[in-house]
Amino acid sequence: MNGKRDKKDLWILFKTMFVLSACTFGGGFVIVSLMKKKFVEELGWIDENEMLDITAITQSSPGPLPVNASVIIGYRIYGVLGALTAVLGTIIPPMAIISLICVFYTQFRENPYIATALQVMRAGVAAVIVDVTWSLAKNVYGMKSVFYTGLMAVAFVGACFLNVSAMVIILTCLAIGVINVIITLPAVRGGKRHESAC
Amino acid sequence: MSLLVKLFFAFMQVGLFSVGGGYAAIPLIQAQIVNIHELMTMEEFTDLITIAEMTPGPISINSSTFVGTRLAGFGGAALCTLGCIIPSFVICLTLAHFYYKYRSFSGVQTVLAALRPAVVALIGSAGLSILLLALFNSDLNGVRFSNLRIIELVIFLLGLFLLRKYKDKVGAIRIILGSGVVGTAAYLICGMPV
After folding, report:
1. Which of A1, A60, A84, B187 is the most exposed place for a label (fewest CB within 10 A)?
2. Nearest CA-CA distance, residue A37 and chain B, Å
3. Does A172 contact B118 at a Cβ distance shorter than 8 Å?
4. CB-CB neighbors (< 8 A) of B178 in chain A
């Protein structure tokens, strides 16, 4: 899995996670879409479907999403050492920032420049996520499957307008996937089962 | 039991049981730190959430660092954070191992195919809520078009345009930092927001 990678990639991995973690506000999906942008589109280390699978695993595991995603991506790039490197890159920025803020909390909270910068950066983050969603949705739509496109639409409505939690959506789709396997399996093994029944 | 050991195990539980990320961790941290161990008051805890919202990084990492620093200095911060991520690390490493071992099986592929559209939808939904927060400073129910912030709208459209148009050249990080610089400058010229 890490055959062709050399030590330089560990540094790139660390640097990427560090920077992403340092400038990402908002929930876990925000950083996951930034990771997708970086590792799939910019570095080409991970393919797009794999990134979506990683996101699903990340979402269904306990703990902070960015840390979970770092563990899996790091493991994919450079084994256990990669996972450690990626997690370190992800947790150092928030730890450093919070430690500093603990010291200067009042000044930080009342500084209008910091408050404004934090607020407008959200617009940039939104642009990145909409861009990522755009590309991903185009690919799902491109599968020309009414089923998967419909599933995406229903999940979107559920998440946005009905306040269905991400966990419930992921588990429901997992169940749909498993049912799908059960339905399609007998079709493949049909002949064999028939024999054993006789 | 010494304070440090108590903190370590408190945050290990937060890490282990906060399924669903982000906001799911808040009530767990509150239960551990405010209610069970009484290490912080509710006011301090509210401050903590505010800071965690205003700064980058996962909320549980932010809070473990904050609580650790306040109660036991930098060593405390490191220990709390470690406690918080150990469950993630072990569980995700195991899942990643099995994923890469079995993902080429056709049955596994069928299951994953149903998961992918859901993940795309969830990412899209996160995008929508952060967009509304940026443009209207509210969630879906509180959108009033009179509250639309023009500077943020322009930055968003410009950022999206650059990302779509120059796919390979414009990195995500540059867009975010750039929007911070351009937006702050724009607010300085137009006068600060109230």
Report:
1. A1
2. 7
3. yes
4. 124
Give A77→chain B minimum CA distance, Å. 12
Domain membership flag for residue A91: yes
Residue B91, min C-alpha distance to chain A (Å) = 7
Residue A20 is assigned to a structural domain of this protein:
yes
Same domain, A31 and A90: yes
Does residue B64 sit in the same domain as residue B23?
yes
Based on the domain organization, do A147 and A177 belong to the same domain?
yes
The string of pLDDT tens digits covering residues B81-132 is 999 999 989 999 999 999 998 888 777 778 878 888 888 888 888 788 878 8
| Pair (B14, B31) in one structural domain | yes
- Domain that includes residue B110, residue range: 106-190
pLDDT digits (tens, 9 = 90+) for A50-62: 999 998 888 778 8
Amino acid (one-letter) located at A164 = V
Q: Do A97 and A164 fall into the same domain?
A: no
Task: Identify whether residues B93 and B128 lie together within a single domain.
Answer: no
Q: Which of A54-68, B37-51, B63-77, B155-169 has the lowest mean pLDDT?
A: B37-51
Q: For residues A75 and A80, what is the distance between their CA atoms, to the nearest angstrom?
A: 5
Question: In degrees rounded to 5, what are phi and psi of residue A45?
Answer: -85, -25
* Interface check B129 vs A, CB under 8 A: yes
Residue B143, chain A, CB below 8 Å: the answer is no
Amino acid in position B114: A
Is A90 within 8 Å of A74 (Cβ atoms)? no
Q: Which residue range(s) make up the domain with A5?
A: 1-121
Q: How many domains does one find in chain A?
A: 2
What's the CA gap between B57 and A21, in Å, rounded?
A: 6
Q: Determine the 3-state secondary structure of B19 from DSSP.
A: strand
B58 CA: distance to closest CA in chain A (Å): 6
When scoring A33, A104, A131 by the number of chain B Cβ atoms within 10 A, the one with the most, hence best to mutate, is: A131
Closest Cβ opposite residue B115 in set A109, A113, A170: A170
- What ipTM was assigned to the predicted interfaces of this complex? 0.70
Residue with tokens 């755009």, as numbered in its chain:
A134
The SS3 assignment for A62 reads strand
Chain-centroid distance of CA B13 in Å reads 19
Residues B85, A63: C-beta atoms closer than 8 Å: yes
| Cβ separation A61–B99 shorter than 8 A | no
Instruction: Assess whether A25 and A94 both reside in one domain.
Output: yes
